[in-house]
Amino acid sequence: MKRTFLLPWAIFFVLVLMLNCKKNRQDPDQPGPDEWEIGIPASKPRGTPLGDAVTKMIGSDGGMVTSGDAHLQVSVPAGSFAETTTISIQPVTNTLEEGSGRNAYRIESQGRPFAKPITLTFSYKDRKVTEGSENALMIAYQREDGVWCAKPTHVDPQTKTVTVTTSHFSDWMFFEQLTLRKDKELVEKKDQVELDLLETALLDSKEADDLPLTDLRDLGPTKYTSLSWKIVQGPGKLEAQRNTKGVMAKAIYTAPEVITESKTVTIQVEVTSKGTLPDPKYPGGRRPIGKMIFLTSIKLSPDSYFKGTVGGQPFNFDLKGARVQELSLRIDGRDSKAGTGINIYCNGLTGKVYNGGRGAGEFYMTYGQGTPRVMFWSFYQSCTEGEKFSGKLTLTNSADDFVEGTVTGTVYFVDNRCGFTESKEISGSFKVAFHDAP
């Protein structure tokens, strides 16, 4: 009887233990929304200098040092240094967020320690921060082993600044803990753009205020909910896809089959995070990430165009093209209805900028209108100084099948041996295919 009575209780306790073990067992790759992950941090090389350092002598009364670009302020309280110390701020390459377009900063104090915490304030205004990512901004420094570590960071959306206090100097920069990335920004017809919503994970550490960081990686399902994609502005198609962890945090944008003019497409992804980030000025010391709306732009490049103004009147040629003649380039545009046209003769193939002239590395152009044809030239014969040329041709992009650029200058109608009787200002831009292109 005794054994019969004890057996159900033994089974009950075993089940309770199993449930507790299951509850407490945590997948290191899928922590709870308010837990730091366990893993191996990413070690990065040190940044290389991008310019001269700004230096300032700081005495026992303290003071402030501002970076050369005014994006970083180092505030030193009184009593931080026992003797006058040189503080330097030097811009360096950002190995934490490569490709972000933001540099990091190397802050030094002649190797001298300081007695009081020093405040670093970064401005993220006009710093290529992904629109909508403010709630996920953090400041990090690089350890001697190359690992970047996040520090508790205060975000002030009113002043567009992020602030941290520190007891040591190193390479410092703010970063987007959650960020939207794309593999290209300028596309042509039928091109595709891959968009990824990615995170830099904060890893558990013995030092509560120093959280090692991972490389950018796919979002997991535990921390993020209600993720949705859409095109806010512009043509094209957008298809949401699952990432490697099953979250709809990827999307493929496909440009339209025909692009007649330059346009900007705006893509939005809305995500709600259940997680928090350390913020010393937020109640409880944790800042909720909450709902974020990320926006990014993709520029559509038209198939071909040759447009601008002549004498203040707009033109947009329906017939256009380019061709190579020996070591010269010719670019033509014509309006089949209006009967107007521009011909550009460029004496070179490898240059980027050509000024007016007939020699190598120079160009001239003509403008024609009406029937019978009236021709204007970008040069005329001066009665005292010989030929006078006008204009500037800039080739911004050249490939096997097209050439792109701008042209400006004055064209002249000449009916005498010297001088001219009429002139027109030309300003145009073009992207035209080669006639013999496949």
Notes on the structure:
With 438 residues, the protein is mainly beta. Helices cover 5% and strands 51% of the residues. It is built from one helix and 33 strands. Strands 1, 4, 5, 7, 8, 11, 12, 14, 15, 17 and 18 form an eleven-stranded antiparallel beta sheet that branches. A hairpin with a 4-residue loop joins strand 9 (154-156) and strand 10. The longest helix is centred in the N-terminal third of the chain and has 23 residues, at 2-24. The chain is elongated. The model is unreliable at 1-31 (pLDDT under 50).
C-alpha end-to-end distance: 93 Å
Q: What class, by secondary structure content?
A: mainly beta
Total domains: 2
- CATH class of the largest domain, please? Mainly Beta
Reported by name, the CATH topology of the largest domain is Chondroitinase Ac, Chain A, domain 3
Mean pLDDT: 87
- Looking at the overall shape, the CATH architecture of the largest domain is Sandwich
Low-confidence stretches: 1-31
- Characterize the largest beta sheet: strand count, sense, and whether it forms a barrel: 11 strands, antiparallel
Query: How helical, in percent, are the residues?
Result: under 10%
Q: How many beta strands in the DSSP annotation?
A: 33
Compute the number of helices: 1
Per the principal axes of the C-alpha atoms, what is the gross shape? elongated
In short:
The protein is mostly beta strands and 438 residues long.
Topology of helices and strands:
Elements: H1 2-24, E1 54-58, E2 63-66, E3 72-76, E4 85-92, E5 104-108, E6 118-123, E7 137-142, E8 148-151, E9 154-156, E10 161-166, E11 171-176, E12 178-182, E13 186-187, E14 192-202, E15 211-218, E16 224-233, E17 237-241, E18 250-254, E19 263-278, E20 286-300, E21 305-310, E22 313-316, E23 319-325, E24 328-335, E25 340-346, E26 353-356, E27 362-369, E28 374-377, E29 379-382, E30 386-389, E31 392-398, E32 402-413, E33 422-433
